[in-house]
Amino acid sequence: MGEEQLKELGKKSVDSEFFTLIPEGYKKGKVKYVIITGSVMSGIGKGTVSSSISKLLEERGLKTSPMKAEAYYNVDAGTLNPFRHGEVFVLDDGTETDLDLGSYERFIDKNLTTDNYLTTGKILSEVIEKERAGKYLGRDVQLIPHVTGETKKYFRKLAVDSKADVVLIEIGGTVGDYENMYLLEAVRQLIYEEGKENICLINLTYIFEPKTLGEQKSKAAQLGIKKMIELGLMPDIVICRSEAPVNKSIREKISVFSNVPMNRVISLHDSDEFYKIPLMLRDEELDKAIFDVLKIDEKKLGKNGSLEKWTESMSVKNPKKKITIGIAGKYTGLKDSYISIIKALEHCEAEFNVKIEIKWIEATEIETKRKKVTEVIKGIDGLIVPGGYGKRGAEGKIECIKYCREKNIPFLGICYGFQMAVIEYARNVLRKKNAHTTEIESKTDYPVVCLLPDQKKIEGLGGNNRLGGYDISVKKDTIAFRLYGKEKIRERFRHRYEFNPEYVKEFEEKDMVFSGRSPKAEIMQILELPKHKFFLGTQFHPEFTSRPLKPSPCFKGLIKSCL
Ligand code: GLN
User: Fold this and answer.
1) Looking at the 3D structure of the chain, how many domains does it have?
2) What is the band of 14 on the pLDDT scale with cuts at 50, 70, 90?
3) 333 and 274 within one domain
4) What is the pLDDT of residue 414?
5) Nearest to 357 by CA among 326, 403, 395
6) Which residues lie closer than 8 Å to 378 by C-beta, 6 or more apart?
């Protein structure tokens, strides 16, 4: 479709069957798209593959902007239970997203925005709002063309706003789900409108190798691809995830079934070395295949070079030491609920060339007295108490913190962990045995943690924590200042409660230092105990800004003190 025709579609959007909203400043062909879909099953690393592709393209000097298009009806990830869906990742602009955005940010070392995260809830809210405002001018509002039209608008808006050369769109779920059908339909239309040479469609599939058979089987993958073709989507590249490298005859079968040439049927087997994945994909010439489809002249791009160094720097080959970090949480059954913390520890592994073993401590087991704190904490070199909400597990976390404070074991408390450290200190050092947070005990006579003033008037639970990046003033001559090396820092928040500022003086008299404060309001952001080996609490989430080769200063401080 020509540029003029595309403009025409945009103009006629309300009085014809077409509904294509072209954002201002959009120029067809200026941006290329890479769309990543999944088939067969979820959980095979679509987010990691998407992040890796972004990294491979950035390596060659192309500016990328990755988007996760999520099929859930939730407007954002804020109300999702981390136990079901994994961690809620928070962007600097305050958007609560799925954990894939964390993966993108870490791989390409860029801050993303709300435009990089799309959900069905977000699109439908807009459609309904527009319908109520009469913006569809008497039209019957339909999935096609209206919902798909709004979806394409988001894709193109990201292209304009990010000024990217390549927009990557990861479609949530797998092909065949009812929920993401409209996203795939929007992609089909986008391919027609933008032209084949501007869109590269990748399908990530899975090749099973049942133990009873001892050989690889491609049927499930074939059916998944067939489903895509039925929807009018011909993949340009197929990436086959599998336990072992995918053999030639299986790749041939996939090729025959999907009309994808052999050099674009790529094998990606399991690897223990997570940071090697982009390089593994490059070794399979995935980057070349993408340039080929998108008609990008490789000769005009920058050279490869930094990826080997990045991969090498992130690999921990002969660690000089092994340490164990305990994480006391309540979602320890699903490691994805703490994925950014795990990643921040990995960044430290590379930084210090150490092996960090994680010991998951289920805080609820301590408070229900099924296990003793000495028993669960045995053998750890340091403790992290991560963010959380609600009553379950809180007393268990407080017991763990007490133990670490008294036994001089390095401790990092994050968000709820910061608040639990405050309660522990109030109860056991200030001798206020009823001290609590009003989140759990609304009538406590010693409310050391209470609702933020802005939160008092809020109703409902969606999108209304204190969210996103805020500046923090760091006090000189403190642990925090030594870690960050500057007086003004910025970190990301997600909380409703805070340290009750009425008690600052009482705590300071008993040697607790509030080394980080909000420059605008009286909100305590960092606490520390100067006499302890390492005792730091942050009201923010340092794990969200930790990146490969640039570990979070707070995590660095913790690990360094353990060493
Ligand atoms: N529940 C606490 C609050 O709302 C802590 C939140 C968190 O850890 N993310 O303030």
Assistant:
1) 2
2) low
3) no
4) 98
5) 326
6) none
What's the CATH number where 359 sits?
3.40.50.880
Cα–Cα distance measured from residue 170 to residue 201, given in angstroms and rounded to the nearest whole number: 10
Q: Residue of the nearest CA to atom 6 in ligand 1?
A: 495
Of ligand 1's atoms, which has the minimum distance to the CA of residue 497? 10
One domain for residues 76 and 140: yes
- Ligand 1 neighbours by CB, cut-off 6 Å: 387-389, 415-416, 439, 494-497
d(Cα 19, Cα 193) in Å, to the nearest integer?
12
Query: Domain limits at 190?
Result: 3-312
- Domain assignment present for residue 474? The answer is yes
User: Quick one: which H or E segment has residue 63?
Assistant: none
Counting ligand 1 atoms within 8 A of each CB, the residue from 90, 330, 341, 389 with the most, and so the one to mutate, is 389
Same domain, 468 and 506: yes
Residue 428, pLDDT > 80, answer: yes
Domain boundary pick from 283, 312, 341: 312
> What is the set of active-site residues?
415, 541, 543
Q: What is the CATH number of the domain that holds 252?
A: 3.40.50.300
Q: What pLDDT sits at residue 333? A: 67
Is-contact 200 236, C-beta < 8 A? yes
Give the pLDDT of residue 15: 66
**What's the whole-number mean pLDDT along residues 230-244?**
97
326 and 305 fall within a common domain: no
* Calpha distance 100→122 (Å, rounded): 17
Q: Which of 294, 312, 330 is the last residue of a domain?
A: 312
121 burial via Cβ count (<10 Å: 0-12, 13-18, 19+) = middle
Nearest CA to ligand 1 atom 7: 387
Residue with structure tokens 């079934």? 257
Distance (Å, rounded) from C-alpha 91 to C-alpha 104?
A: 11
177 and 292 part of one domain? yes
Among residues 230, 236, 231, which one has the least CA distance to residue 200?
236
Whether residues 348 and 294 share a domain: the answer is: no
Return mean pLDDT, the chain.
93
Is 317 contained in some domain? no
Q: How far are the Cα atoms of 210, 234, 242, 243, 489 from residue 213, in angstroms, in the given order?
A: 5, 31, 15, 14, 56
Residues 38 and 184 in one domain: yes
Q: Are residues 470 and 532 in the same domain?
A: yes
User: What was the pLDDT predicted at 11?
Assistant: 61
**Beta-bridge partner residues of 468:** 493
Q: What is the pTM of this model?
A: 0.94
pLDDT in tens, 319-330: 999 999 999 987
